[in-house]
Amino acid sequence: TPAPAPTLTAHALHARYGGFQALDGVTLTVPPGQITAVIGPNGAGKSTLFHCLAGTLRPAHGQVRLGARDITGLAAHTRTRLGIARTFQELSVFPSLTVAENVRVGAEQGRVNDPAAVDRALRLLGLDGPVRTLPAADLPTGTLRRAELARALAGSPRVLLLDEPAAGLDSTEVSALARVLKALAADGTALLVVEHDLDLVADLADVVHVMTAGRIVASGPPGHILDTLGTLGAGEAGP
Ligand code: ADP
Ligand code: MG
Predict the structure, then answer these.
(1) Which of 62, 84, 137, 217 is deepest in the core (most CB within 10 A)?
(2) Which residues surround ligand 2, an ion (CB under 5 A)?
(3) Do 9 and 193 touch, CB atoms closer than 8 A?
(4) For residue range 70-127, what is the model confidence (pLDDT) as tens digits?
(5) pLDDT value at position 168?
(6) What is the pTM of this model?
(7) Dihedral sign, CA of 132, 135, 139, 142?
(8) 110 C-alpha to ligand 2 centroid (Å)
(9) d(CA 55, CA 48)
(10) Which residue owns the Cα nearest ligand 1 atom 7?
């Protein structure tokens, strides 16, 4: 059996944009075999946290750790090689490449470049039919989101970071996404999901963290957290 995925940890992260404090001391863990969710109103700092974990933003203070290793100073592409894969809130597939070519890029940039993992990812996301040879340009949002997730999975990641993976999906696609993410967690992947869809969070998450104004103001199992949202001053968790 493969070694379990390491825990990804954010420790006391502070981040700023110019003079604006976007993260004000955020600590959380993303353990293997679990789905960790982050919710909160627009502007709370969810994507900023995500960028610090993925390596696309350098925090002003604090650390990001993968297992015992301090990876705070590592570039995003180096983290991808270590097994931290991500998707983007704004989709980032290459429009001129086919779906399958996009997914192959994920394997080339990932922890392991394994053609079998490319086929597995395409199959898992229902992209192994004729759509695999179509250029990504002009495909519907739902298909692009699936292609982007397949690309992240193609590199056999141990940690998966998803920023608003259900945005633009219809309810059938959201159900399919939930099944895929639960299967990945059951296989031992560590998942962090930033998500507006609270029904999806309630269905998926083992632990929910509520962010407001750059801080985590509540953490716990979804049943408890989603029931008490109104009393947290977190306002609407939707967009
Ligand atoms: P969320 O994902 O929770 O909606 P973000 O992390 O995107 O929030 O943004 C947190 C805050 O930081 C917001 O007030 C946003 O306007 C600000 N912000 C985000 N990105 C930038 C940036 N590149 N430059 C300046 N301010 C930014
Ligand atoms: Mg965001």
Answers:
(1) 84
(2) 46-47
(3) no
(4) 999 999 999 999 999 999 877 789 999 999 999 999 999 999 999 999 999 999 999 9
(5) 86
(6) 0.93
(7) positive
(8) 24
(9) 10
(10) 47
